[in-house]
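1st attempt posting a full record on here, be nice pls
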Amino acid sequence: MPPKKKLTRETIVNAALALVKERGADYLNARELAGRLGTSTQPIFSQFATMQELKAAVLDAAYECYLAYQKEDIEKGNYPPYKASGMSYIRFAGEEKELFKLLFMRSRRNETYSPSEADDMATMVAEMMAIPLDKARRFHLSMWIFVHGVATMLATDYITFSEETVSSLITDTFQGLKRQYDTEELT
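the predicted structure (as tokens):
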């Protein structure tokens, strides 16, 4: 009898990521994953101590997928970097619905908030608009709430928009907020 092929962590995570993409995060369990891999659950648990550990690795892999979308859209240069980040978030929601739900539509109650990405965006806004960082944070929060709303509607098949429509909506929202901030007393 030939020796059994050992499954790597990467192979298991990739299969789990594919399972989530196709069926959703609710279907990520040892039995479903083992079936997809054509094995028992033993090889999975020889690489991961618990399902929680595996799910954390899948979450990291999904986030890397999202970051690849963001990097690609920024590097294309079709939009200024700030707008490109919003466009990529929405595109990711429309094209990778289940990964978007896993990353951005789950309970965060027991997670610690890491403001690094939001702070990077707020810094970009502060420099772009020449406003103080606290106002840029509030500006970015308003933009992000809008972008997340559009993305959520796409991820849940509530609506569909063309890229041109999304671009126009983001521009309109940005310009409206900018006018509001231009008329505010900058104290």
